Amino acid sequence: MTETQNATLQTLKDNAGTGWVAAWTLTNAASCAAARSGDALPFVDAVPLLLASADLRAAEDYLEQARRGLPTRCAAVDIGSSVVALDGPSACRGVERVLCATLESVRHLRSSEPAGVGAVELARVDTLLSSARRLLLGSQR
To answer: What are phi and psi of 4, to 5 degrees?
Structure first.
């Protein structure tokens, strides 16, 4: 990642908040980054990004089901062209970095939400985030 991308990611992590708000904000940012990157690339390079974006959007839905009104309390962040790259592997690496921060946030939240509906939804979110990450990592080979 470039210095600009690293700075953008660090700013995003620093300003995402904590708990459910951070989980949603980072998931939303990763989803938007994957979709935007996928739109900017030729189809063959865009497929893993668009599939990852679909998983990330589904993860957002599960977070919203667990905590009604979550999107209204969170900042929807569009990190814009800072992760959009000119080639597929670079774009996947950029989105994957955002996704790693998202997974870290969700897993921290899972450790503090041991039971109940929230725990079930967080497990689903973790599975979808992991699926998106595998798609992105698999496309970098």
So the answer is: -65, -45
Check residue 61 and give its pLDDT.
Answer: 93
CATH of the structural domain 3-138, one choice from 1.20.1260.10, 2.60.120.1440, 3.40.390.10, 3.40.109.10: 1.20.1260.10
Over range 106-119, report the average pLDDT. 83
Q: What CA–CA distance (Å, rounded) separates 48 from 51?
A: 5
Residue type, 26: L
Q: Could you identify the residue written with the tokens 């708990």?
A: 19
| Separation of alpha carbons 131 and 51, rounded Å | 9
Q: Helix or strand or coil: residue 83?
A: coil
* Paired tokens of 141: 């080979």
Percentage of residues in the chain with pLDDT exceeding 90?
37
Q: How far is CA 83 from the centre of its chain?
A: 12
- Average pLDDT, integer, range 120-131: 94
Q: What angle do CA 9, 101, 5 make, to 5 degrees?
A: 20
